[in-house]
Amino acid sequence: MIKICTVCKVPKEFNDENFRPGKSRNGRVYYRKSCRECEIFQHLDWQKKNIRYIMFDSAKHRAKRDGVPFAITQDDITIPKRCPVFGTELKAGDRRNHANAPSLDRFKPELGYVPGNICVISHRANLTKNNATLDELRKLVAYLEHV
Questions:
Q1: What is the pairing mode between strands 11-13 and 2-4?
Q2: At 131, which CATH number?
Q3: Do 37 and 55 sit in the same domain of this protein?
């Protein structure tokens, strides 16, 4: 049986590989109207348009998991054009390329997600400072300057 995707209008074989099954509220199984490829592109497009919401929601979950305060709103999250640490242009990433993707950082992690303690930097900058102390970073810089 052939089904036409409502987004790309391409006829495709009607199977689980091409069309994802879902469940309605009453528990009945149905198949999505758009193909898997189009759903992936639609989801990625939604993520790019809603990055502040994703950062906010993810921070909320991390705060609950880690037991730290959470008192920010989406309006508290300001995404600059460039990473304040490295100066690289911030752009939405994907699973393979996310070094320059915006990432929510806490200046002092123990204070939690509260206004004045957060900023947006690149994922790479956030990962770099993630577990290192200031003393360790100074030693790393000193080492790199003498190599």
A1: antiparallel
A2: 3.30.40.220
A3: no
